[in-house]
Inverse folding.
């Protein structure tokens, strides 16, 4: 029987960066069963394979568990394992362990009945070495994790148990064994959602998400800079009318910051991806907003040089609101040609009609655009640079599939 099944799509590409960059699809693999399976993170392993983290309802009996898929360099499955308890456990983030293996960050209500942060340390074969849970009397829901220079980790979540308002940023610092060292909250009287964190060169942290406590009541991008102990050094807000939210932040080679996210100045029906570059103190240097006929959002970014950044996200491709995973190469707008005549500080990305299937196409404003076609409806992507010039994208999408005798899907 043919049906729509949400599953994990792993795409690996070979990238070249010339005057017209090209992306060649090395492979595409789908993983999942006859129920709901999502992908959230992907890491390259020492043998050039991949470790994919997600969430599954296909491999457990009526429970939702975090799910890890280990593959070889061509995406063929080596092993899979599920992690969680008797209720709802979702794979949110992971990092290589400083002492080997990997650390997974889960959102779990199997421990207390409320959502807690759950860390699971696994070895190279996926066997559990330890688990630790963190939280208060209400909800602590993780959104991001970063490795720290001392071998430990920081986890950024939103909290209802601690802080000042309805929802606050919650930053938790743990050591290499998962023991809690300290935690901090950031925000005001309204809702403040923390989505991304990175340790900075000075040993402190940069956090980003959105705030309804400061700025526009629908939510502005909220950037928080802390010292090594998590104490606030400065905060910045960015945005206008409508919700503006950052999903990714990184410190750039010049000491500033690059944010990627979504802006909805004309309401949720007109959501657009954006990138925003600041100096070291959070002052805006330039911004770019993706244009096109349908909605988009940017979820991840890396710096290729001081002039170029690679971002990944998803976008609607038709009125039915089907999504494509996509990547876009952006240049510094003050050093790249052909600005948008309507707005000299905004540079246009390629519209759907300008796409080159399976590759990159140079677009107005010095941007290059690649459409990575996943069958069906991707609802989230994560991008990472891999070895040998490769990149990998993990997307969750609903693929038209045929259920095999083993209960797992076969791409139609």
């Amino acid at each position: 029987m043919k049906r729509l099944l949400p599953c994990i799509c792993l795409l690996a590409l070979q990238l070249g960066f010339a005057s017209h960059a090209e992306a060649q699809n090395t492979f595409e693999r789908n993983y999942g069963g006859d129920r709901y399976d999502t992908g959230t993170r992907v890491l390259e392993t020492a043998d050039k394979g991949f470790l994919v983290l997600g969430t599954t309802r296909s491999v457990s009996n009526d429970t939702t568990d975090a799910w890890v898929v280990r593959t070889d360099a061509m995406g063929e499955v080596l092993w899979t394992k599920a992690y969680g308890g008797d209720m709802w456990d979702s794979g949110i983030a992971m990092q290589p362990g400083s002492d080997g293996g990997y650390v997974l960050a889960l959102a779990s209500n199997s421990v207390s009945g409320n959502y807690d942060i759950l860390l699971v340390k696994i070895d190279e074969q996926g066997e559990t070495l330890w688990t630790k849970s963190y939280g208060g009397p209400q909800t602590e829901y993780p959104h991001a994790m970063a490795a720290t220079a001392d071998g430990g980790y920081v986890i950024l979540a939103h909290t209802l148990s601690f802080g000042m308002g309805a929802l606050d940023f919650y930053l938790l610092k743990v050591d290499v064994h998962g023991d809690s060292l300290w935690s901090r909250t950031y925000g005001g009287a309204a809702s403040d959602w923390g989505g991304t964190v990175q340790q900075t060169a000075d040993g402190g942290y940069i956090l980003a998400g959105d705030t309804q406590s400061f700025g526009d009541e629908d939510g502005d991008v909220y950037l928080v800079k802390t010292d090594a102990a998590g104490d606030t050094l400065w905060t910045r807000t960015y945005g206008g009318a409508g919700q503006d939210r950052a999903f990714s932040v990184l410190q750039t080679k010049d000491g500033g910051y690059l944010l990627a996210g979504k802006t909805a100045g004309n309401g949720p029906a007109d959501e657009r991806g954006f990138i925003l570059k600041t100096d070291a103190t959070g002052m805006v240097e330039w911004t770019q907003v993706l244009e096109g006929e349908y909605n988009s959002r940017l979820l991840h970014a890396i710096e290729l040089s001081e002039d170029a950044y690679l971002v990944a996200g998803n976008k609607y491709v038709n009125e039915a609101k089907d999504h494509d995973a996509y990547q876009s190469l952006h240049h510094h707008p003050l050093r790249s040609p052909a600005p948008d005549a309507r707005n000299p500080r905004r540079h246009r990305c390629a519209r759907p009609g300008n796409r080159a299937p399976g590759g990159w196409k140079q677009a107005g404003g010095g941007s290059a655009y690649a459409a990575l076609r996943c069958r069906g409806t991707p609802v989230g992507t994560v991008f990472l640079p891999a070895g040998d010039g490769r990149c990998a994208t993990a997307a969750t999408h609903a693929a038209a599939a045929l259920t095999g005798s083993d209960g797992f899907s076969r791409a139609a």
Notes: The mean pLDDT is 76. The two ends are 11 Å apart (CA to CA). The CA atoms of residues 128 and 332 lie 44 Å apart. The chain has no helices and 30 strands.
